[in-house]
Amino acid sequence: MHYNILTLFPEMVENGLNTSIIGRAVAKGILSVDAINIRDYTKEKHGHVDDAPYGGGAGMVMQAAPVCDAYEELCRRLGRRPRVLYMTPQGMVFSQSIARELAKEEDLVFLCGHYEGIDERALELIVTDSLSIGDYVLTGGELPAMVMIDCISRLIPGVLGSDLSAEIESFHDNLLEYPQYTRPEVYEGMRVPEVLLSGHHKRIEEWRRRESIRRTLERRPDLLAQANLSRKEQEYLKELLDAIPDSRQPEQGEIPE
Ligand code: ADE
């Protein structure tokens, strides 16, 4: 996967992505990260990339030309026109399933805005997808781009130590992950659940699935509608629901107290 990030702060993205698991995958050549400075494409004497908004109002707007020129030069270099993901709180909220879809691409372009946004004409010309990381407003698109790159990268074969761990994760199967324990067996008087010490793989698997279901019901009941449960697991879920007093049955999307 080749990530290309159009930004006014290339060092922010480079520094953020050159460590840990992503940095190692870049060093191994599984991923590449190319941070392209939009400022390098300005034709203005003083290197300006922004100007006051037509119609008035606070702040500055990033001009269309440097953004489009940076993208067009990248396309000429690559010999194709990759998807352009615009980082904006107005976009569709990023999710594990969007990450799975994007992980299939060969190249991705992340367009990071700053100030009061980017001239709408540049967005109309080059953006294929508008994506948000949640309903809050950040100062720029660099952190959202890094969040998405991290999430997409761990789905690419060879990036994680074991490809299995990308699958056994929160949101796999729309269930939250079961609780994990490591040594010592007793900490502050709290014991590791007996079943995990049993060496009985089938029982451990069953316990973990049940814990995932219980946790999802308690913390993210909205996810359960999409979960793929066996008949036995559906019965377990019903038992859990029956144990909740009637008036306290969680609504779809409600976070129980
Ligand atoms: N830019 C500013 N806020 C953002 C958000 N929540 N998601 C994506 N891009 C953004």
SSE inventory with pairings:
Elements lengths: L1 E6 L2 H8 L2 H8 L4 E6 L12 E2 L9 E2 L1 H15 L4 E11 L2 H7 L4 E6 L7 H7 L2 E4 L9 H12 L9 H5 L18 E2 L2 E2 L9 H19 L11 H13 L14
Parallel strand pairs: 1-2, 1-6, 5-6, 5-7
Antiparallel strand pairs: 3-4, 8-9
Q: Can you describe what's shown?
A:
By secondary structure, the chain is an alpha/beta fold. Helices cover 37% and strands 16% of the residues. β8 and β9 form a beta hairpin. α1 (10-17) runs parallel beside α6, α3 packs parallel to α5 and α8 (201-219) packs across α9 (231-243). The longest helix is centred in the last third of the chain and has 19 residues, at 201-219. Adenine (ADE) is lined by residues 87-89, 132-134, 136-138, 141, 144.
Brief description of this entry?
With 257 residues, the protein is an alpha/beta fold. Helix content is 37%, strand content 16%.
Strand content: 15-25%
Number of helices: 9
Number of strands: 9
- Cα Rg: 23 Å
Mean pLDDT score: 94
Distance between the termini: 42 Å
- Main beta sheet: strand number and arrangement? 5 strands, parallel
Oligomer: single chain
Q: Class by helix and strand content?
A: alpha/beta
Gross morphology is elongated
N-to-C series of helices and strands: EHHEEEHEHEHEHHEEHH
Helix content: 25-40%
Small molecules (ligands, ions, cofactors) in the structure: adenine
Biggest sheet, spatial arrangement of strands: 2-1-6-5-7
Low-confidence stretches: none
List keywords for this structure.
257 residues, alpha/beta, two-stranded antiparallel sheet, 16% strand, binds adenine
